[in-house]
Amino acid sequence: MNAVELHNLSKTYPGGKQAVRDVSLSLEPGEVFGFLGPNGAGKTTTVKLLNGMLTPTEGTCRVLGADPAREPEKVHAVSGVVTEHARMYDNLTGMQNLIFYAELFGLPADEAAGRAEALLREMELEEAKDRKLAAWSTGMRQRLSLARALIHGPKILFLDEPTSGLDPESAQNVNRMIREMARNSGITVFLCTHQLRYAQEICTRYGLIEEGQLLASGTLDELRAETFSRITLQIRAGSMPPGMGFRRTGALEYETSIRSEEEIPEIVRRIAAAGGDIYKVEAKQPDLEEIYFALTAPGRERLQ
Amino acid sequence: MKNAEKAIIKKDIRGITSNKRLFIPLWIVPLMMTVVLPSIFICAVHFATDDPDVMSLLELLPESARTGNVELVIAGMIFNNILPAFFLMIPIMAASIMAASAFVGEKEKYTLETLLYCPLSVKEIFRAKVLSSFLLSMFVSLVSFAVMLAVLELEAVFLMGHPLIPGVGWAIVLFLLSPAVSLIAVTLIVRNSAKAQSVEESQQSAVFLIIPVILLVVGQFAGVMLLNVWILLGLGVLCAALAWMLLQRAVRRFTYEMLLK
User: Fold this and answer.
1) Which one, of A5, A19, A78, lies nearest residue A209 by Cα?
2) What is the H or E stretch that residue B179 is in?
3) Do A87 and B3 touch (CB under 8 A)?
4) Distance from A124 to chain B by nearest Cα, in Å?
5) Residue B126 contacts by C-beta under 8 Å, 6 or more apart in sequence?
6) Do the Cβ atoms of B141 and B107 come closer than 8 Å?
7) Which of A191, B187, B206, B258 is the most buried (most CB within 10 A)?
8) Which residues does A243 contact at the CB level (< 8 Å), separation at least 6?
9) Greatest CA separation for chain B
């Protein structure tokens, strides 16, 4: 059984805005899926559809076999959600908040307290646990939200921009915690983020969405194959013999485009034979950021 | 009831009791109505029995109620006919403080979405919200009654030499009619809170639409108390049935999408 399935899923809001258009994809259990796209692309709407907060206009979706539109409680019981608009109570302490949410998910009082303690320790919030949330920083609240989403031991985690509004240090802390949690727990993670470099570090598969449409999905290699047919070969050399097809990019830097890495030995041999001194050879694969910009409209504009 | 619903009730009640700015007014008005006002009535009866207005009021009473000590008759009439109406108002006033912000208060603090991600249905969350306001209102109501009874009995014994005897109607009001009317009001206010866009809007709707209707009913209540106990009981059962029906049907068309809009 797939952890998440979307079949021709569409959502049009009452005002007529089509937020999600005919999206189909599936996630295997244990996958860490990065759902990437610019603001207003339809990422949050998709997360809300997958949790039953919104009803699809067309198509269906399933989370661990349950239809969120018909059985939202079943989906909620196995999933944890962190979104910008899912906050916690300022008049309660960190510990009281976690115990409250644990009780909502049916955990007995003593188990709830134990689990809350462990998560607060894991999120490095132990010192602040007895202070009311009103006195907490945004970064601490975000880490507590992550702890809240994990309190009932979910099988799937939906994270919608978990580092939105955080300073770089807090964002790094939250990112590190998500990465460790994804590696250690085996939970399926559906992560919506703008932080492409970070997404590339932890995600096993990606989906790129723009204006509600899924532009591409797959592993990094699959996306590379879909968007870039060539590899950039960068060479640092004392001199570059003419007629090799390289363009100069720096004092001793040269660059050309090749079809596969198998072409490299022959190119290096030819340069050396023609009297070129080679110091460094690097085949540069496009990273997620380049793929993202190649596929999405803001990226295309930026590249132009 | 699920433990998760109990957790919501506990959290909501704690939200009121830990907030002094809400908790103190919650007690001031009920205690004014049940201690200060009745004490003024009793003192007025004791010190101004011969007042022609009081005499004409006495003439309105049935023959059977006009026998014995005049002071005690008037005090008993106030105690058994007028004061019960206060116990229809007190729980509604107390509950409206919590009920008006039940959903929209959570929405304004961005905690509603988090609450909706728990494995409870909208109906169960709604029921927990209604019950938390209802239980608080009943607590305020019963404590107010206990304080009122203690103060009035002391005053009656001290000033008139005889305690006041509570009628059977009191039991019907306190344990059937008052809870039922309170539950109706709370359900309507919480339902309205789920549709409102701000706490102010919800409070205004509660004050301007629901409370006047209920108070209109309360205004006629002194007369109802003069009627047969069985009619009072029937009225209580009718209100309880209406409250139950409202609670069952109030969220029929509610969806997560509508609540978060």
Assistant:
1) A19
2) helix B178-195
3) no
4) 22
5) B190, B191, B194, B250, B251, B254
6) no
7) B187
8) none
9) 66
The single-letter code of the amino acid at A130 is: D
pLDDT at residue B65, rounded to an integer: 63
In this complex, the residue of A81, A88, A103 whose CB is nearest that of residue B3 is: A103
Report the pLDDT value the prediction gives residue B23, as an integer from 0 to 100. Answer: 86
The answer to whether the beta carbons of residues B88 and B177 sit under 8 Å apart is yes
pLDDT for res B49 = 64
Within a 13 Å sphere around the CA of A86, how many CA atoms are in the beta-carbon half? 28
CB B89 within 8 A of CB B215: yes
Closest-CA distance, B175 to chain A, in angstroms, reads 31
Pairing state between β A4-12 and A247-248: unpaired
Q: Which residues of A touch B121 (CB under 8 A)?
A: 72-73
Taking contacts as CB-CB distances below 8 angstroms, the residues of chain A near B15 are 89, 91
- CA–CA min distance A174, chain B (Å): 19
Q: CB A87 to CB B109 under 8 A?
A: yes
Give me the pLDDT at residue B209, please.
61
Q: How far is A108 from chain B (nearest CA, A)?
A: 9
**Backbone Cα Rg of chain B:** 21
Full set of structural domains in chain A with CATH: 4-225 (3.40.50.300), 230-285 (3.30.1490)
pLDDT block averages, 10 residues each, chain A of length 304: 94 92 94 91 94 95 95 95 91 95 93 94 90 91 92 94 81 81 86 86 91 92 83 88 87 88 90 89 87 73 52
Distance CA A108, CA A236 (A): 64
Asked whether A22 and A9 are in contact (CB, 8 A), the reply is yes
pLDDT band at B221 (very low <50, low <70, confident <90, very high): low
Ordered DSSP codes for A87-133:
---TTSBHHHHHHHHHHHTT--HHHHHHHHHHHHHHTT-GGGTTSBG
As a dihedral over the C-alpha atoms of residue B50, residue B54, residue B58, residue B60, rounded to 10 degrees, the angle is 150
Residues of A in contact with B3 (CB under 8 A): 103, 106
CB atoms A86 and B15 under 8 Å: no
Mutate to test the interface with A, among B8, B101, B114, B254 (most CBs of A within 10 A): B114
ipTM confidence score: 0.84
Q: Are B182 and B137 in contact (CB under 8 A)?
A: yes
Contact (CB<8Å) B257/A54? yes
CA atoms within 13 A on the CB side of A212: 15
Enumerate the residues of chain A whose CB falls inside 8 A of the CB of residue B110. Answer: 85-87
Distance of alpha carbon B71 from the chain centroid: 29
pTM: predicted TM-score of the whole model, two decimal places? 0.84
Q: How many residues does chain A have?
A: 304
